[in-house]
Amino acid sequence: MYPGRVRMFLGAVALAAGALACGDNTAVDAGLPAIDARLPAIDARMIPDAAPPDADTRPLPDLVVDPDRLRADLAIEHHTFAADACELLPEEDCIAAAGDRTLLRFAVETPNIGNANLELGNPVGNPAFEYSSCHDHYHYKGFADFQLIDADGNAVAAGHKQAFCLMDSFKVSDDPTVATGPQYWCGFQGIQRGWSDVYHTRLPCQFVDVTDTPPGSYTLRIELNHDQTLEELSYANDTVEVPVTLGDPDLDTPTETCDGTLSDHALRGPHRECGWTKQQTFSCTPGQPYLVGCSFCSGVGSCTGNPMLRVCDPANPDPNCSYPTALAFNDDNCDACPRTRDVACPDSGQLDVYTAPSSPGGGYTCNLAIMQQ
Questions:
Q1: What does the pLDDT read at residue 58?
Q2: Is the same domain home to 196 and 233?
Q3: Quick check: 310 pLDDT over 80?
Q4: What is the pTM of this model?
Q5: Averaged pLDDT of the chain
Q6: Which residue would you say has higher pLDDT here, 182 or 25?
Q7: How far is CA 343 from the centre of its chain?
Q8: CATH code, 329
Q9: Has residue 310 been placed in a domain?
């Protein structure tokens, strides 16, 4: 397994706050990866079947799916949905029924490798968008199509057309002419050239419901812009497929070794589902908030190198601390050492803490501590 918005309002709100505003309402520490203008150039592996760059010089965007991020964040989650869950509404339609469901979660990162921005603008009153009353924001309809395909080419899990809030998440090009700061957000949508949008695994409907799918080998297919309503330089690179084995124990844990063929960009940060170590279990008082970390500047432990952490409930149906199920996570705090705050102690009275280097293979120490707030 290589598993596993707003993001920013007016360019001044933190990325974690943005994630909450655009639909991720899980209470976690503001530990989402910061927008980093130093990210490497787009890897050619994420441009399958793309035309040569000089084949078309029209000023158009060109969207692709990063297959490495898709593979790096794959994870299985077991989740119970209420009868009035947003995921059952017709405009969402991403689970087959209420109750206990098994979800194949993954992230979709969509770099714009074209020579112009993709600009959709204000979604209010725009027929290309639909308003999600449950999530209280607008989605671009049918941006991505998710399917799980068997060996005979049949879609075995219910296909889901995910609606995106398109925005600038990461600068992914080192071209000096590419803008250094984000321009688009949920209230004025688009993706600049040389930037990517990321729908991470904690977001609603960012999964395929595999509850009734038997174990075995499958292909996860992600297709962008299926109806070609967005004009692009190429439509040939809008689909990516990656192999998935349901029943593989690696999908249930983030502790296996990371695949060395995956890009550093795909693996960097607390979202990845590989290279983690279960370091310590702390006792806590249920319902009370805690500060957990190895950050000397926050007064909880100390570290060397550049570690990151996740905090989870060991009594969770997914006890191995995947990114979608974590109570909190953090990469860097006021130094290179992580901490999470306001972690509510669960009914189990225990907190499992997992640690990992920010980039796979990096050396680190993380001397953990916990403090009731």
A1: 84
A2: yes
A3: yes
A4: 0.83
A5: 85
A6: 182
A7: 21
A8: 2.60.120
A9: yes
